[in-house]
Amino acid sequence: MDIEAEIRALQLDSAEDNNATLIPEDAKPEEVEMTDKVEEEGMTDEVDTKSQPVQAEPKSFFIPFSLPSLKDKEVADMDCAEVPDEMESQKKRHLNVVFIGHVDAGKSTTGGQILFLSGQVDDRTIQKYEKEAKDKSRESWYMAYIMDTNEEERVKGKTVEVGRAQFETETTRFTILDAPGHKSYVPNMISGASQADIGVLVISARKGEFETGYERGGQTREHVQLAKTLGVSKLLVVVNKMDDHTVNWSKERYDEIESKIVPFLRSSGYNVKKDVQFLPISGLVGTNMKTRVDKNICPWWNGPCLFEALDSVEVPVRDPKGSYRMPIIDKFKDMGTVVMGKVESGSICEGDSLLVMPNKAPVKVLAVYCDEDKVRRAGPGENLRVRLSGIEEEDISSGFVLSSVVKPIPTVTEFTAQLQILELLENAIFTAGYKAVLHIHSVVEECEIVELLQQIDPKTKKPMKKKVLFVKNGAVVVCRIQVNSLICVEKFSDFPQLGRFTLRTEGKTIAVGKVTDLPSRSSA
Ligand code: GTP
Ligand code: MG
What we know:
Elements: H1 3-7, H2 86-89, E1 93-100, H3 107-117, H4 123-135, H5 151-156, E2 163-168, E3 172-178, H6 186-194, E4 198-204, H7 209-214, H8 219-229, E5 234-240, H9 251-267, H10 272-275, E6 276-280, H11 306-311, E7 325-333, E8 337-342, E9 348-349, E10 353-357, E11 361-370, E12 373-375, E13 377-378, E14 383-389, E15 401-403, E16 411-421, E17 430-431, E18 435-440, E19 443-456, E20 470-471, E21 476-488, E22 500-505, E23 508-517
Parallel strand pairs: 1-3, 1-4, 4-5, 5-6
Antiparallel strand pairs: 2-3, 7-8, 7-15, 8-14, 9-13, 10-11, 10-15, 11-12, 11-14, 16-21, 16-23, 17-20, 18-19, 18-22, 19-21, 22-23
Function: This protein promotes the GTP-dependent binding of aminoacyl-tRNA to the A-site of ribosomes during protein biosynthesis.
Protein name: Tr-type G domain-containing protein
GO molecular function, one term: GTP binding
């Protein structure tokens, strides 16, 4: 069965012909609630405060990070979306960029080089890293050490936790999320990608490396499919290691890689003409990154360099007046309880009253931090640290959602979804009783398929008539999914970002899906 062709059938895509019925990035803003409305339906009474382990603990390039003390502000009675935004006043737009791709493709090296070229790392630090890398017999990893900050990562030369850093160009503030490429750390990659707006897919052009990364079981394909599912709507594909002696800035090699990847990106739902841009770089040497590559090195490249390409990416449309939703990815204690996450919808202000869901815990916003800056207000798309009163840190888990009071996020233990089966484990069949790990925004939960409802005909995209008892690779199926504890989810048609998910079994992504229906009593 040709899985790649079948993925097109999943209506999660934005395939070039645009014949899909539901297109995440095309989901109209009107579909999202424009303002908070008081809803009569009550929330479900079940409250689950069970603590879940925090899966990925994003590290920060700017550690140690200490929060400044609070100052009194009177902003509470203004409409939050109207409070002037300090970040906005700087006139710079903000984009979250996740670096994805197979292990050793050069994600951390490229991320490190970006920080070096944007003047955030001085020569002395680079020399120190060069020495440290040499002592560990990893000479060529010194640039990656800028992003790979912990000892395990430096010793093994592999990113484990999502690295986080900021840099700015003339027009844009970027948050870089450096995902791990190793297959053992895909859950961390998922967490990184779920916070991103755009992706940089790093591909190694080195002989043999492109092939290993791209074959079935390699992370190039898995990362692309996950990124698309997680809402990364635009991709810059950087063909890296062009300086390597097996490549030597060869146009043939570059063209070969591009021509092999394009059909796969298309089948994964990317509109290649509109949403994907390719470019050659050397992350290690820093070529074609801040300035265009010299014609003496690469006479055939007439396109942009990486910084230019990043600068020209459009910021996704966001609604600052939507109902507030911020999935929590991490929490810690610091003069109160501080939660971290990316605002998916709405705006937050100092003094706001919000709910931590699914526990329905009322909290007050004491302070909001965007990168290192304390701000009065922050809108959608921002990665924030929010200090709260009214809740203890131990009562919060990753996967909880900081949510508007008047229209809180629905909480469920069951939902209906449309799934695209990618590749099941050998000999496995997908049927009622199938267990997997569900990843939806920052939630990671065991789940069970309790009933297959309908199989979708990939050609007509309509439900098939005959009753479905099991499906195989490539199938599109509507089913009921159950989890043991209450989780926060949205219907894909309401909030695409909080309504799409992946299922994984034994460390492998076996399906991607979207939430199509919630039990009526769940509507919060
Ligand atoms: P994971 O975090 O483990 O997924 O790897 P990664 O994609 O972050 O790769 P990393 O940056 O750690 O680089 C892996 C190896 O590739 C290191 O030895 C780098 O020096 C080398 N490398 C990265 N970019 C380039 C490049 O542009 N040219 C050459 N020649 N080597 C590179
Ligand atoms: Mg890395």
